[in-house]
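Quick question: what would this complex look like in 3D?
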Amino acid sequence: MRIAYFATLRDVAGKREEGWDRPAATVGDLLRDLVAKYGPEFARWVFEQGELRLAIVLVNGRDVRGLQRLDTPLAPADTVTIFPPVGGG
Amino acid sequence: MHGWIGKVLRIDLTTGKTSTQPLDAGLARDYIGARGLGTKFLFDEVDPKVDALSPANKLIFVAGPFTGTYAPSGGRYNVVTKAPLTGGIAAANSGGTWGPALKYAGYDAVIIEGKAPKPVYVWIRNQNVEIRDASHIWGKTVPDTSDAIRAETDQDAHVACIGPAGENQVLFACIMNDLHRAAGRSGVGAVMGSKNLKAFAVIGTGAVTCANKEGFERAVLKVREMIHKHPTGGTGLRLYGTDVLTNILNQIGGHPTKNFQDGQYANADKIGGESLSAKVLQRPKGCFACVISCGRVSKVTTPKYKGEGEGPEYESAWGFGSDSLIDDLDAVTKANFLCNEYGMDTITMGATIACAMELYDIGAITKADTGGIALEWGNAEAMVEMTRLTGVGEGFGKKLALGSYRLGELYGHPELSMSVKKQEIPAYDPRAIQGIGLNYATANCGAAHVRGYTIQPEVLGTPAKVDKDTIEGKPELVIEYQNMTAALDASGACLFTTFGVGAAELAELLSTLTGVGYSTDEFMKCGDRIWNLERLWNLRAGLSAKDDQLPERLLKLPIKTGPSKGSVSRLPEMLPVYYERRGWDASGVPTEARLRALGLA
């Protein structure tokens, strides 16, 4: 699996992207593993009171909020893209 | 009156006469200010059929009730006029400090009429209004004009002006204030140039009064807190500016690429907000009373594109970047600087160059037209040079000055202009995001994202996520955003306050400031009223339902790559529902009943 980070999450992870071999059945599993690896600075841009309310998470370019949110299944060939809550106009 | 000053200044440039009139309290209540009051003045005073660049058009500068107060990020003004680019109504919105200065000088609005016999500038210090000779300043860039006028008026004067592009009546010339802020779209700067009005400098020592000071303070603190707590309003925009959107839109496949031939650009990250912050950003900057600071003070050191200034915004980075397959951030930033210095809209400039590159690609234009410049996709140097030529009014720049629609028409391919009502579509692909396409098609000023920014729910998920690909519920969503934005623009607030608050909080701020009790519904109804009045004026100007249309490419050519592959805009299915929900007939004309309900009949 490939994971791409943007904005503040690039600074937190210290990289633009990385390969991820550890099995993760769902987006929720992956995000919890990433929080374990990168700590509370990562979590603060992703979760609010344990819910995925902040980050924009895409699986192969599709927003998980239109899929099964944290329960969205993942496959080894997937690309997961994670944005902190940002915006503009 | 509170919030409003209660006075309108009228300047007739033909005769040199100035006069003031009281602001009607009923009009102020119903149209709030800025975009709303400006629309009402235009509707009452300007024949919609006039030539936009003739003395019969009027140029209306209007602040909102928030403008000049400490309402968070509430210091904006609008320029309302007949637009030379679209032939419809223009309401160009700008921040900075100019709007507050106008209020402190003692005016809510200034209506400029006629045409000066020679170049002039207007200098206002409180009740003293002078029309001064500007012959020696004509031809100067925005920074040089601003310096010159400050030197001969007051070093603290707030200057709004045009650059050479406005003088040359480039159809997408801006009015720039505070050097880098733009009343940007639809060619309001060309109207100013047509009146021989080079600049408008103002300084004031008055104040804006408040009806309920304690209530207003409470509302201000609440709004400030809500914006601060919002991750976008409080943090994201300051850190990365609006250009952070490049990667988001690109990753979802909604980032128009190669003049909308596709929806994803492989090199987009190189011109995105993360790269901007790392490479050219000097510091974030806010407008008057801003708590967000999305502005980018930037600097390019690469010798070829060396310069200092502000920007780029997301739309500018896209227009000079992905839309022309350019991934050189220094070149993109330089083109933005040039637009600020010559006074041109970055969206239309970038999109017009992209259209020209496609015309060149298919052989409709050649080096014989471009002055020997190879206008190939991805040619960053050519893009910057074309921007400069348009600014100075030389060579092929004279053709680009027409905007993409008239350029395409000139060379036999108007279908290559990605525009609505001849105004260029910004950086969100309507094939990948259905609601924004309906907003583009129906916006009274021509294609614009900031008239109904459905990107918030459709992409960003603010305040709640809505499926971007469905058309279900989109007409209602677009109408709600359009009405809310019209009321917000009229108040003097910045659109980015909606990254934190909504209509309810803005209505509370407005009520406590003015003493006029606006419920949330009444605030929204003001927006609806403004929208319908704009529509009525456009219909009288000769626009009709046939102009509520996207380019055929977006309706028929599916996106080729990325997650939005295969998508087209479903505008034809949404538009009839939109008309019906607006209370308009099948040809897009507001019904008598609807107009009566809004107090417009």
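Answer marked as accepted. Strands of chain A lie at 2-5, 17-19, 56-59, 62-63, 79-83.
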